[in-house]
Amino acid sequence: MIFYFSGTGNSEGIARIVAEHLGEKVRNIIGAHPEEYVFTDEEYLGFVFPVYAWTAPEVMLDFAKKIHPGAAYTFAIATFSNVAGMALQHFSDILPLKSGFGIVMPDNYPVTERVLDTPESSMAKLASAQVRLDEVIERIRRKEEGFDVKMGDDAWDNTYVKAKMFNQLFRKTKPYYVTEACIGCGMCARVCPANAITMQEKKPVWVKEDCYLCMACLNRCPVEAIQYGEHSMGRPRYVFKGFSPENYK
Q1: How far is residue 146 from each of residues 19, 98, 100, 245, measured CA to CA in Å?
Q2: Containing H/E element for 96?
Q3: Distances from the Cα of 76 to the Cαs of 50, 102, 112, 212, 234, in angstroms?
Q4: Are residues 139 and 209 both part of a single domain?
Q5: CATH number of the domain bearing residue 194
Q6: Do 205 and 227 have their domain in common?
Q7: Among 167, 196, 222, which residue terminates a domain?
Q8: Looking at the domain assignment, is residue 249 inside a domain?
Q9: Taken in order 213, 109, 237, 14, is the CA torsion positive or negative?
Q10: How far apart are CA 227 and CA 60, in angstroms?
């Protein structure tokens, strides 16, 4: 079984490809009940998730705390745009992993001062990620052990100290707003895994103080009407549509 959490499709896309190659089922953790699953020593038990502030999303960590892996071969794949810190090792503190791998993917977080990716760099990352994914799948198939991920500088401090501050202080919905371009389609409310959005008078309203800050609403809006803070206006949006550049034209 391959479990995933995904905001704009990077982790979902990889989870589905891995599951297909391994002959395993794939499941979104949103709405899943971890205590209902039982695993044998012949099974793969995988987790695919994006790295948020050098750690796995809190919702994925909470899911991992409740699942019973049995003797299954456990692994995780972390997707990230720059470095992952010790996200895989931290995850393994909660649910012991046999192996963990990092895959660099295009950035989906156009809300900071610095632009991490352009459309051109995103395509370059996707090309490299496809090669990397093929390698990772073969290593999982062989049931290798150990971690292979780009951690970056100050990895321990980033994951075990700074990530806590991110979850406590920076996952706020208040900076979200919607422009006059909104067509009232309700896409944002449908894709929000935190159920933080409701439609009122055909406009999205954020009804929770905190969300996962996965950027699904912002990136999946068909008319780019959703903004966050002062930096997102005019920035490229990104949703995973496969590895072929033709899908992004």
Answers
A1: 20, 6, 6, 32
A2: none
A3: 11, 9, 28, 20, 34
A4: no
A5: 3.30.70.20
A6: yes
A7: 167
A8: no
A9: negative
A10: 25
Q: Find the Cα–Cα–Cα–Cα dihedral 143, 89, 80, 73, rounded to 10°.
A: 20
> Which among 218, 199, 196, 216 is positioned nearest to 207, based on CA atoms?
196
Residue 22 has pLDDT above 90, yes or no: yes
Q: Answer positive or negative: Cα dihedral of 65, 70, 71, 72.
A: negative
Dihedral angle at the C-alpha atoms of 9, 108, 197, 59, nearest 10 degrees? 70
For the chain, the domain total comes to 2
**Residue 36 sits in the same domain as residue 109:** yes
DSSP letters spanning 155-207: HHHIIIIIHHHHHHHS-BSTTEEE-TT-----HHHHH-TT--EEEETTEEEE-
Per-residue pLDDT at 33 exceeds 90: yes
Position 245 in a domain: no
85 and 145 in a single domain? The answer is yes
Q: How many H helices and E strands in the chain?
A: 8, 10
pLDDT at site 249 = 81
d(Cα 175, Cα 198) in Å, to the nearest integer? 16
Tokens of 156: 């321990």
Gyration radius of the chain over CA positions: 18
In terms of residue numbers, what domain contains 218? 171-240
Write out the two tokens for 132. 């990397």
Looking at the chain, the whole-number percentage of residues with pLDDT higher than 90 is 93
pLDDT of residue 114: 84
Last residue of a domain, one of 106, 138, 167: 167
Residues 163-216: pLDDT tens digits? Answer: 998 888 889 999 999 999 999 999 999 999 999 999 999 999 999 999 999 999
Q: Does residue 121 sit in the same domain as residue 43?
A: yes
